[in-house]
Structures are given as structure tokens and as C-alpha cells.
Amino acid sequence: MDLKPGSRWRSAVCDTEVIVVRAPAGPVIFRIGGAAVCPADADQDRPTADRGGARPDAALAGGTLLGKRYTDEASGLQVLCVKAGAGTITVDGRPAAVMTPRQLPASD
Fold first, then answer.
1. Which residues contact 93 (CB under 8 A, 6 or more apart)?
2. 3-state DSSP assignment of residue 67
3. pLDDT digits (tens, 9 = 90+) for 22-72
4. CB-based burial of residue 26 (10 Å sphere; 0-12 exposed, 13-18 middle, 19+ buried)?
5. With the C-alpha atoms ordered 56, 94, 99, 38, is the resulting torsion angle positive or negative?
6. No. of H helices and E strands in the chain?
7. What's the whole-model pTM score?
8. Bridge partners of 30?
9. Residue 76 in contact with residue 25, Cβ under 8 Å?
10. Which of 12, 37, 58, 97 is the most buried (most CB within 10 A)?
11. Region for residue 21 given its phi and psi (left: phi exceeds 0; alpha: psi -120 to 50; beta: otherwise)
């Protein structure tokens, strides 16, 4: 899987879709909800969780938030969630952390 900046990926088990902001330093195992991701434009007629399709692993169903960036410090991968879903983003088995906004200095 080629995780290039700007590439769009989706989960096979929930509605989560992400765009890669920063590529990982090397090859990684990138999953959402415990299942491998696939390109967002592939197989548009896939079943979704709300239509009785596949579901995320119960241990990896923490969800993703629309508009939040997720990062894995060990690999350097950073993604932006463009469609929220029930699955947790993992990289090499580690849950990705939600990035907090940087504090800007106050302008008085």
C-alpha cells in the first residue's frame, strides 16, 4: 500500500475515510476498525455498517472524529479524517493519537 500525501483511504468495516497528510517513514500496517484500508475510490458499492455489513472489531471501535488529524509518532504517519466512522485508526497495531491544536501566542 502506497500511503502518499494526498491519497484518500477508507475503512472496509465502517464509514471512516481519511486523507494522508504526512507519509510514514517506512512500510506500515494501516488499519481502521481492525480491518485493512482500501483506496476511497475502490468498490463504491461496499456494504456499510448501517446497512448490515461488516462491523469494526469491538476492541477497535472507539470511532474517528470529522476534521481531526490522527498521528502515529513511531512511523510519522499523519492522516486527516474527512468522514467520521466507528472504527479506531491503528498503525502497526498501535492506536493513532488525535493531534491537539498548537497554542498560538496571545496578541494583546
1. 29
2. coil
3. 999 999 999 999 999 999 887 655 545 443 567 888 788 889 999 999 999
4. exposed
5. negative
6. 0, 9
7. 0.83
8. 91
9. yes
10. 37
11. alpha
